[in-house]
Amino acid sequence: MKNSISIALAQHDCLVGDLQGNAEKILQWVNQARDELGADIVLFPELNITGYPPEDLLLRHGFIEDARKVLDELTGKIHGITAIIGCPILENSSLYNSAVVIKDGRQISRYDKQNLPNYSVFDEKRYFVAGDSPCIFETEAGKIGVSICEDVWQDGPVKQAVQAGADLILNLNASPYHMDKREERFDAVSRQARKNAIPIAYVNMVGGQDELVFDGGSFVVDDHGVRTMHAPAFKENLSTVEFISTEGGLRPVASKITADLPVNESVYRALVLGVRDYVAKNGFKGAVIGLSGGIDSALTLAVACDALGAENVEAVLMPSRYTQSMSIEDAIEQAENMGANHRIIPIETMFTAFLDGLQETFASAPVDTTEENIQARCRGIILMAISNKQGRIVLTTGNKSEMAVGYATLYGDMAGGYAVIKDVPKMLVYELANWRNKQQQVIPQRVIERPPSAELAADQKDEDSLPPYEILDQILELYIVKNFGLEEIIANNFDRDTVRKVLRLVDLNEYKRKQAAPGVRITERAFGRDRRYPITSGYMRHVLSNDPHQ
User: Fold this and answer.
1) Is the Cα dihedral 112, 118, 122, 126 positive or negative?
2) CA-closest candidate to residue 402, choices 493, 294, 302
3) Which residues are CB-neighbours of 387 under 8 A, at least 6 positions away?
4) Among the residues of 102-205, which ranges form H helices?
5) If 0-12 CB within 10 Å is exposed, 13-18 middle and 19+ buried, where does residue 422 land?
6) Which of 112, 201, 308, 408 has the greatest number of beta carbons closer than 10 A?
């Protein structure tokens, strides 16, 4: 019997549906783990053959068959090391989210995920049947149990594996990022390790998939729940952990522990990774951004340049009759600071042409937000035209606070392919801009300090239409993330009329959000997969009309 075993944790960046490409990378890492790192076992993330989440691709029989075929072909190429790979497996008309144990060209064991998450961004019960049995395989150093993601958050599967004789649990994950998620993961895994007196190795996927970002950060805890290894976040990584065989079972040897990132840095890196992978995986040549001289587009440009390289980003300034000279100056300064290409395309002639064309139709109507929205839509047309010609994706610049209350123009500033800061509240936008400037001063300080404005009317400021962002963001956090109702929010010392206005705006603008581009998810409850509300609903009218204080 060996007195130790070396296990490699493979933080794999997968592309959903790229079965052959994912398999090729898996084989590359299998060989590297064996030949360069001397590992006995290499552990991959959940469903890494297909990528995660494959969504309704799982409803296609051809997809399931192709995934199994690729897995079988890959199996025959794995020798001299044990590999644990995630793949959907169809058996007796039931589809399982499985981890397959491969050794010397054979699939020697399989684990079927028992706890299928069906909350937040997860829909696994739509596709999979739950397993009910542990998976234990023998090694020369001890018995090893396998589990998948949610299974380590619940009591049953780990206890079951321990009762079956496991000396160590290997856990495959596709756990998406949101703020403070890394600590939540560690607490859950640590609790199971302590409760069952068994070490656990946790490997997590990395990379962007539509609005989800997987942040890696794989780790190992000992049987006391103490972290003994922690891989870096937001990048692919292959690292090994040595486990010593003792009378009490397998025990991890302490190795490198990467420090947790500060919140603002982790959010910024999530945005960068999400943009990088979305653009690259969808085959765009780069990005184009409408740069206004305001804080939102400034942060979007910084993220885009850091993600794609400044040479692959074009900033377009589109001044109107209401654009202040300082806005143009600041936008040019930032583009030059970051090395991004930039051009100026005034919208006055287009705007005037629309007004002339609509003069008869609007003859008896006063000037209102219609004219403001026409300007925004002129800019949307310009950006989409450049996108079409250059093969670059338009990155929209609206933040979560604006998206929540509909302070955005459908088919105008909302026009585009990917919404970089869609899930970033306005006050966090400022924090991220300041954090980025601490790394290198790229955003003009005046952009951060001046009052925010859409500049679609004379002397316009956001607070002419909205509560101060410091207040608005707090109300939105309670309503959107925590699901508080009217009275619960007011009880947190907010003005009743202000809360009523905000809640009405949020519900009224659901139709806009349904048409918005996908964007990076960084909070526990983003607009998109997390929050599914009907567009057509009378509930808020019911709530507000029954407010006894009105």
Assistant:
1) positive
2) 294
3) 288, 393, 394, 416, 417
4) 156-163, 181-196
5) buried
6) 201
Annotated catalytic residue: which of 14, 87, 135, 149?
149
> Do 243 and 309 belong together in one domain?
no
Q: Is 318 helix (H, G, I), strand (E, B) or coil?
A: coil
Q: What is the CATH number of the domain that holds 180?
A: 3.60.110.10
Rounded Cα distance between 532 and 163, Å, is 40
What's the token pair of residue 525?
């409850």
Residue 492 lies in a domain: no
Q: Tell me whether strands 287-290 and 393-396 are parallel, antiparallel or unpaired.
A: parallel
Residue 245: in which H helix or E strand, if any? strand 237-246
Cα–Cα distance, 411 to 355 (Å, whole number):
17
Q: Which residues have a Cβ under 8 Å from the Cβ of 483 and sit 6 or more positions away?
A: none
Residue identified by tokens 């990005």 is 287
- 479 lies in some domain: no
Q: Which domain holds residue 8?
A: 4-253
Alpha carbon distance 545, 3 (integer Å): 72
Question: Among 462, 485, 474, 479, which residue's Cα sits nearest to residue 525?
Answer: 479
| Residue 439 φ/ψ, nearest 5 degrees | -75, -40
Identified catalytic residue from 103, 113, 400, 426:
113
Q: Report if pTM > 0.90.
A: yes
CA distance 10 to 48: 10
The pLDDT profile of the chain, 550 residues, written as one tens digit per residue, is 678 899 999 998 999 999 999 999 999 999 999 999 999 999 999 999 999 999 999 999 999 999 999 999 999 999 999 999 999 999 999 999 999 999 999 999 999 999 999 988 999 999 999 999 999 999 988 899 999 999 999 989 999 999 999 999 999 999 999 998 999 999 999 999 999 999 999 999 999 999 999 999 999 999 999 999 999 999 999 999 999 988 878 899 988 888 889 999 999 999 999 999 999 999 999 999 999 999 999 999 999 999 999 999 999 999 999 889 999 999 999 999 999 999 999 999 999 999 999 999 999 899 999 999 999 999 999 999 999 999 999 999 999 999 999 999 999 999 999 999 999 999 999 999 999 999 999 999 999 998 877 767 777 777 778 899 999 999 999 999 999 999 999 999 999 999 999 999 999 999 999 999 999 999 999 998 888 888 888 888 888 788 887 7
- Is residue 439 included in any domain, yes or no? yes
Two tokens, residue 56: 């309704």
Q: Three-state SS for 5?
A: strand
Distance CA 52, CA 67 (A): 13
Q: Quick one: 246 and 275 in the same domain?
A: no
Residue 417 is part of a domain; what is its CATH number?
3.40.50.620
Between CA 451 and CA 376 the distance in angstroms is: 19
173 and 124 part of one domain: yes
Nearest 10 degrees: Cα torsion 186, 7, 235, 423:
-30
Q: Which is catalytic among the residues 14, 25, 46, 124?
A: 46
149: annotated active-site residue: yes
Statement to judge: residues 108 and 195 lie in one domain: yes
Closest by CA to 526, choosing from 212, 266, 55, is 212
